[in-house]
Amino acid sequence: MKAEILEELVRARAEKRPAVLATRLSDGVEKLVYQTDTQTENWLVEAVSEVLRADKGRVQADPDGEDWFLNPFNPPLRLVILGAVHIAQPLAKIAELANYDVTVIDPRTAFASEERFPGVTLVTDWPDEAMETIDLDTRTAVVTLTHDPKLDDPGLHAALKSPCFYIGALGSRKTHGSRVERLTEAGFSDNEIARIHGPVGLNIGARSPAEIAISIMAEMTERLRT
Questions:
Q1: Per the structure, how many domains does the chain have?
Q2: Share of the chain above pLDDT 70, in %
Q3: For 92-143, what is each residue's pLDDT tens digit?
């Protein structure tokens, strides 16, 4: 790898920007490609998006029949949790074990405390303000857990406007029905709202906060990997 490309890759990783190192196999020509590139050939941008999504390298032929090896360099997976409730505690722990960077957002400091979430990034701004400071990319999952529209809905609005790979919202089917009505009134389409997994988590008969956290993490993993 050339020194200038290595330096650029180090900067991209520090900025948590997903990138792909494209190497032409016939002569070793290299270039670093981003999903947001506007001056890169369409075939390569599309292939880069697929490789970053799969998080797995592959060989891709260009329109001239030349083979390129595409090697993804993704930033860490991230989980943004709205609501420092009981379920959030085991969910944060499980996500960290799965190598997610976890952020918990809740303006209620009695809930969002270091004692309850040791080592977790805590944001005590109101969600509408907090979500403006978080870049929700294709490596990010958002889960809302409060049942309170004042806290959950701003997070869902931000998530639905982003390319995040998973959106989950705790609540019964009745609660989710009311949520859908509010989002529709806010101008979101049926297809956009359908991105929300609600009730959140795989249906494994979970009851305790830890079991519900497991079901959420399982659904996140399924969405990420399939």
A1: 2
A2: 99
A3: 999 999 999 999 999 999 999 999 999 999 999 999 999 999 989 888 999 9
Amino acid in position 201: G
Task: Assess whether 50 and 144 both reside in one domain.
Answer: no
Cα gap 103→205, rounded to integer Å: 27
Q: Compute the radius of gyration of the chain from its Cα atoms.
A: 20
Render pLDDT for 30-59 as a digit per residue (tens, 0 to 9): 999 887 776 678 888 889 888 988 889 999
Number of neighbouring beta carbons within 10 Å of residue 139: 21
124-131 long-range contacts, Cβ below 8 Å, gap at least 24? 126/151, 126/154, 127/82, 127/151, 127/152, 127/154, 127/155, 128/154, 130/105, 131/80, 131/105, 131/155, 131/157, 131/158
Strands 77-82 and 58-61: unpaired
Domain that holds residue 62: 3-73
The CATH number covering residue 10 comes to 3.10.330
Final residue in a domain of this structure, among 73, 104, 124 = 73
